[in-house]
Amino acid sequence: MTSSPQTADVLLAGAGLANGLIALRLKATRPELRVVAFDQREPEVEDSHTWSFFSTDVPAPVRAWLEPMAAHRWDGYEVRFPGQRRRLTTAYASLTGAALHGVLEAALGEDFKLGRKIMSVSPGGVELEDGESWRGPLVIDGRGARRSAALTLAWQKFLGLELRLEQPHGLERPVIIDADVEQHDGFRFVYLLPFDATTMLVEDTYYSSGPRLDPAALEGRVLAYVAAKGWRVAEVVRREQGVLPIVLDGDMHALQSEGVAGVPMVGMRAALFHPVTGYSLPDAAILADLIAGAPQLTSAAVLSLVQARARRRWRESRFLRVLNRMLFLAADPPQRYKVLQRFYQLSQPLIERFYAGQPNRLDQARILIGRPPVPLGRALRALPSSSVHTRAKSTS
Q1: How many separate domains does the chain show?
Q2: Distance separating alpha carbons of residues 388 and 49, to the nearest angstrom
Q3: Rounded to whole angstroms, what are the CA distances from 308 to 11, 69, 249, 303, 366?
Q4: Residue 160 in contact with residue 150, Cβ under 8 Å?
């Protein structure tokens, strides 16, 4: 005999970054609501994600509640390329999966439901694999990225090791790109986050045409990089790896039609991430703020809000997708780093607007002006939208 459905005001399918921030904003601004989040991740499995953002990526009101959640903050960062190093003073911060888990557990209590596999969602409810049913006026689908025939993709792949070293590493700020390394599988760089004097995250990262990830090879390269710097590893604290989509082209309306009818999609599932960097935290935080302030918290009302936001961001990021096509379609893989190397010779305010996904027309002209660091003919051919016929291949 099936038990009667349970009820809540907001039902969140998935308890990752996007839905996690939505839950926290709703509990902070509308504490009378019952918000229930379901995730198939088991309670004892630690979330190994690290999400980062620049202080200029989000408006000040969002930054006011987001920055206190960050596990680590720095007053600037560095980039390194062959023959070129630069320090920038834009503040940078990182939120860890463990920190997000902790604040969600404190905010939701028993309504933070891990180890619960979702069978289906609808505009009015969530069905779990164990037969439990939930009903509510607002259901949000934030179950992570999915393959879509509506998008033409390349990939950002990475494997990171959080390491405790025997001696201080000497880094005062993150190195978000160290491309002064041997190139493999497209554009390769190492990403360094110094958490304290002897602990740091070292990620081996690739901008590649295919999604295949070889964890053993990447871990070997991380350890070789660390050894070459003279750092001796005392302990591998944790590992994280991922394959993030980089959007070359697509159809946002088609993407939105692929979801469950009437159910708003958020986060990576809705292609709400920076097309070039893959950063998803800024979009997730801004959307969480919008949803928390919505006059009606129903699936229909939030669907309209979320889809409008995603379409707006898609229009705003057209130029960024052009840059992706130049990077992947015009540049020879071993020379892709030169595109980013040239970009980092531009002004800091322009770089900040780029990372916020809002380069203005003058920024766009400045990025493209002069001789491109790729063959001119290929650069010109990469500027128009790529053919729809390539989508099936890139998503297979």
Answers
A1: 3
A2: 33
A3: 21, 28, 19, 8, 29
A4: no
- Residue 87 inside a domain? The answer is no
C-alpha 220/C-alpha 64 separation (Å) is 40
Q: Answer with the one of 270, 297, 316 that is the final residue of a domain.
A: 316
- Average pLDDT estimate for 204-221: 96
Looking at the structure, tell me whether residues 274 and 389 fall in a common domain.
no
C-beta separation of 219 from 213 below 8 A: no
Assess whether 128 and 220 both reside in one domain: no
Q: What is the CATH classification number for the domain harbouring 74?
A: 3.50.50.60
Last residue of a domain, one of 197, 217, 248: 248
Query: Residue 157: which of 275, 278, 47 has the closest Cα?
Result: 278
| Residues 6+ away with beta carbon under 8 Å from 300 | 123, 262
**Coil, strand or helix at 205:** strand
Answer whether residue 88 is part of any domain.
Answer: no
- Euclidean distance between CA atoms 236 and 73, whole angstroms: 22
pLDDT, one tens digit per residue, over 64-82 is 999 999 999 999 999 999 9
Residue 42 pLDDT grade (very low, low, confident, very high; cuts 50, 70, 90): confident
> Same domain, yes or no, for 142 and 201?
no
Predicted confidence band of residue 370 (pLDDT cuts 50, 70, 90): low
pTM: 0.92
pLDDT at position 194 over 90: yes
What's 352-366 look like in SS3? Answer: HHHHCCCCCHHHHHH
- Rounded to whole angstroms, how far apart are CA atoms 184 and 178? 14
User: Which among 235, 238, 243, 186 is positioned nearest to 214, based on CA atoms?
Assistant: 243
CB count in 10 Å sphere of residue 248 = 25
Same domain, 47 and 115: yes
Percentage helix, strand, coil for the chain under 3-state DSSP, each rounded to 5 = 40, 30, 35
Structural contact between residues 77 and 178, judged by C-beta atoms closer than 8 angstroms: no
pLDDT, one tens digit per residue, over 121-171 is 999 999 999 999 999 999 999 998 888 999 999 999 999 999 999 999 999
Of the pLDDT bands very low, low, confident and very high (cuts 50, 70, 90), residue 394 is: very low
118 and 244 housed in the same domain = no
Range of the domain at 349: 318-395
Helices 361-368 and 348-355 pack at an angle, to 10 degrees, of 110
